[in-house]
Amino acid sequence: MESQLLKILLYFDVFSYPLTREELLHLAGYPEKNAGQIEESLESMALKGWIKQEGGFYYIGPGDHFVKRRIDGNLLAQKRMKAAQRYSRIISWFPFVRGVFLSGSISKGFMAGHDDIDYFIVTEPGRLWLSRTLLTLFKKIFLLDSYRNFCINYFVDTQNLFIPDQNIFTATEIVFTLPTFNLSMHEEFLKTNSWTLRYYPTFRQNGSPLKDNAPLLKVFFEKLLQNSMGDRLEKFFLKKSGNYIRKKFAEMGDEEFSKAFSIKPHELRYLPNRQQFRILSAYEKRIKDFEKLTGLSLGPDLSQQIAEK
Questions:
Q1: DSSP assignment of 53-103, as one string?
Q2: Which candidate, 1, 2, 14, places its Cα nearest to that of 48?
Q3: Over the chain, what is the mean pLDDT?
Q4: What are the structural domains of the chain?
Q5: Please, which of 139, 147, 256, 308 could form a disulfide with 151 given CB 3.0 to 4.6 Å?
């Protein structure tokens, strides 16, 4: 139990994000009956100096300001949730959009002042790039190309919900996605990516999805473009968008580019800052530094064993 709790705290330490006992209980996948045991483990580790505790929050990093930062970030996320829901509704009105989930920091109930609102979007098969182009035009024309409330950086279609990068970063991003449109699609998304149970055996979010009341204009455009003309437009936008993105990041080598972007008929992953690799590297370093400092060996991931029980 201590090993599992420490690894969760070390991962969230990458984000300077302290956790409560209840959050650790749910993230580790233990039932409520283990709450007392969790608290005893946390108190024991705090006495040993392995972790810190302040105001009901537990963390490993060196700064007491983490707790205030988290509280302030939670409050800001609550304020910006209204904008996230409003723009989720707008996204859901676009042709061929079948699911809208919040991702990134806001899906975890936290936002810093500079954070964008990120969306994970599911589309009709064979219309991903058409949908993405229409949404991009909306952002450029009506939002003056601002990403603050409208960062659309991940698209998949309904037949390709599986995310192949199986690591703690991707698992965290998947289980924390917050559905704002089409709850059943979100449930299918989680079910398709059941490999995340190895990292988070029980943790899931339900959200408050919007009602699926497609405007007549959406229905009209879908009927208008569900034909060979739509097929040609889809291929055109895929080719043009792919060429534009590759040219925009021409300084990246092919290997680096392939790690930051996925440009396929059924998927767009647009993560130019390669956040996943920076976070995984930082997490691995924290584990090694902690083991060296304490003389502990955190051992293999225990979450799969918990899930099997």
A1: EETTEEE-SS-THHHHHHHHHHHHHHHHHHHHHHHHHHHHTSTTEEEEEEE
A2: 2
A3: 91
A4: 2-63+277-308 (1.10.10), 81-273 (no CATH)
A5: 147
